[in-house]
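Deliverable D4.2, example record:
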Amino acid sequence: MSNDPANTKEELLTSFDGGYKCKVKTRNIIAAADLIEFDDLKSKHFISRGAGMSFAPASFAKDTISLLSQANSAIEFDKENKLVKVEAAMSMGELGHYLMQKGFYIKTVPGYPSITVGGCIASDAHGKNQLQDGTFQNLVDSFELYHPAHGLQIVSRASNQKLFDLTCGGFGLTGHILSCKLRVSKLKSQYMNLHTEELSNIYDLPLALERIFKRDCDMLLSWHNFLLNGNKFGHGFIQYGFFAKNLPFKPDTDTSLIAKPDPGLFADSRGEGWPPVFGFPATSLMNSLYTYLQKMSCVSPKTIPLSSCSFPSLKLRDLYFSAFGSTGFLEHQAVVPVFDFADYIDRIKWWLQANDLPITIASSKYFGGSGKYLQFKQAGICFAMDFPRCQKAYEFLEYLDQVCIELGCLPNIIKDSRIGAFCVSKTYREYEKFKRDLRDYDPARLCRSELSFRLKL
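Output generated by the structure prediction step:
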């Protein structure tokens, strides 16, 4: 019986960045009936947990039950209307595999194949061409949501716009998503033509992204070296891709192209057994090697399988994150208004020249739109930086909080395990509205996490 106590156990959970660990009770959910049978959920705090790949601890907290769905399959596929219904615990890698066999794909895909569909809804994930494709909510037709105070609901924009917006990018605080219907697109090709351009001056990035975006590319991002000094600071490369029109989709021709990707690293094993590797020498060596490889890629475009664009260099990224050791890392990601980008880079450059902190990776994407509540969506350049977890890193993040407030940047809540309510309230214009509407929907605040505590939600 699903309500058996054996279905609940105590586990040590870790945020993906390694910054927060906590022993919590986890409970397996097989079907909707399980949720209804668990009477204690009406009085105990709980939160849904997918693959646990969130950098911030959004799926667990002390004295809170983490619900783990075991139902992770595709339920039905409507080819005519381009809709797929899947259980929320299905991973994006499995969904991509399922759809590709039918000649379709999902436009907005996060970086790791183990991330679940439910997790993408809760974080309103973005892909590699947000300005063109939007965020994950653009793909969501409807979802099945359970909350003890409201029962089982089918939520869509037409049926309940407010709850739809509260849930998409609401960090799981409106209840447990069981399934959803997603809009899919016809697959143009199994391959992507990938181009690389060198960018010697980071201040040229906004114009370069705009120029390339106008070519109607299917993916667009950049990488930068923040260990260089003077005019070379931020030297980097822009990568952009187009579906290979001369290599159309051919079902059942090459099964290696539609094989399920290795899910790779999971949060609770990240850095296990590794000493911290990243300091200035190792980071400089890594950046030099990557620069060499990217320069080689500039010579001519290369054609690669779509799966390699959706989930690039999984094994290398596993090594990269593990190399921070069990101490972990920190990330800052924010959408910077285009007209303030030069000022943003100037301030980062000034701080890094005055302090010892190796930036292991800096990267960007082109963003657009305007988000509701706490959705990470704003027009500008989405810029991200990784660095080892240490005292200087926390000082850097506090400095960046102030930079974001002063320049009108939008920090990504799900990528920062220490950002507080003050910074979020100053950078998200609907913070108070989200807080008020969430409490109206769930007065007892049954759904909670470390993230919700930290943001005083």
